[in-house]
Write a structure and sequence with these properties.
By secondary structure, the chain is an alpha/beta fold. The protein folds into two domains: 216 residues, Orthogonal Bundle (MetI-like fold); 262 residues, Rossmann fold. It contains 19 helices and ten strands. Helix 2 runs antiparallel to helix 3 and helix 15 packs parallel to helix 16. The longest helix is centred in the first third of the chain and has 33 residues. It is elongated. The mean pLDDT is 92. Bound molecules: adenosine-5'-diphosphate and magnesium ion.
Length: 501
Amino acid sequence: MQFDWHYAFSLLFNSDFWHAVGTVVELSLATWVLGIVLGFLLALARQSPKRLLNRSAALYIWFFRSLPLLVLLIFVYNLPQVFPGTSVVLSNPFAAGLIALVLSEAAYIAEIHRGGLLAVAKGQLEAGKALGIGYGGVQRLIVIPQALRVALPTLANEYITIVKLTSLVSVISLSEILLVGQQLYTQNFLVMETMLAVAFYYVLIVTVFSFLLQRLERHLDVSQRKPKGVADSRAEIADVEPVQPAQAGAKALRVQGAGKHYGQLEVLKDIDLEVSFGEVVSIIGPSGSGKTTLIRTLNGLEGLDRGSVELCGQPFLRGTLETGAALGNRVHLDGIVQVGMVFQNFNLFPHKTVLDNVLLAPRHHGHASDAQLRALGLALLSKVGLREHAGKYPHQLSGGQQQRVAIARALAMRPKVMLFDEPTSALDPELVGDVLKVIEDLAREGMTMIIVTHEMKFAFQVSDRVVFMESGKIVQAGSPRDLLDNRSERMGRFLKDAQLA
Ligand code: ADP
Ligand code: MG
């Protein structure tokens, strides 16, 4: 048997083939991009707490993953036989092929996205929420970029699968690469030569796009990034005026009768707490006493069952079991932006530089012009001693530095009250001091703060009031002096364990 090398080689210059290459690239890219968008919506729906939404998404994914693409293609292409109106679109094999491919691919890609979405830590969503960014903003600014980054290698792989799947579209006579080949060898019977050329074109497309997608992956890989330069002009550093003026008569925060259950467990039992403007309140107590839960309810990260919270004299949060009109989402969001939150695990946004972490929320809320916000961001970073790290990414900083960025990020929203949940307990001992110093400076400037902490010495030095919690209740509260002088037997034991007394 003869193999006509000359003919095989000549097929590399065949204009029908090159035309078909264009069709395949177009069809596969369009399928990939539309599949990514539709797949993302499906993945979000799949995760939705709304039953109808997540059941429908699950049904879609189950159905279109079960259906062989070839069957779907023939079905879509022949739909006009039953619904003549669809022939406007579906009589075009490219459109019919694209629709069938997207329907099928979206189901696969939804599952890829779901993996990416699950990989975005819950703390990221909470950090966004605590900055008063709504659902759509959190998805767009925080979740999608990180989820896509995680999913990209698998998405790139899926693109290659799609390129090869386009060969199936030959059954509905779209002149893609395989069909061009078939038309040639039915005339001259040089099957092997023609198929060699067909193989060449597929391998070429896959190779070129693998290379491009690898480049894209590297481009998006935060861990490979160099710190960005941030111009250092003195003039652009604004003064950050000392924090909020007191509002006469009103309390910064008033918690009344707060109660909460996790299932059977009563975590907060009828908590009352008032915090004046400029006051620093530390919450101490043994592990599991409900300190974190309390502070998370104060900006709505956890819902209350009972009781209410007022912010600056205005209703802010209300227990779900309380009677009365619901406060509504607006009240909630308006309140949240006035309450800054610093988490135990920092929860910085890993895909943003330090400066962009600080400015993400004020930019989103449109607080000022970009130049003004930049100046504010740099000033806040100077304040926490990190001006020269403005262009770095979070992973390029120590834990203590990350926590100071997190403080600057919360301050950038100009909050009326700052909440800290054990801000130093994830840090190496030698890094604790720098963070505590920043908090101490804020206290001196008159920032209203509630701090959950295990740093007893710090709590008793910095606070105007110390609150001792146990088993979901406030057991004792008062000025540090008062508390040390009149400590209950239980608190005495706790302080002894904490080596303060
Ligand atoms: P602390 O911060 O004082 O250590 P927490 O507020 O974290 O205490 O927890 C109080 C209690 O609530 C603990 O018994 C804890 O196990 C429980 N708890 C906290 N979060 C949850 C949750 N999401 N689901 C169920 N139980 C929880
Ligand atoms: Mg805790």
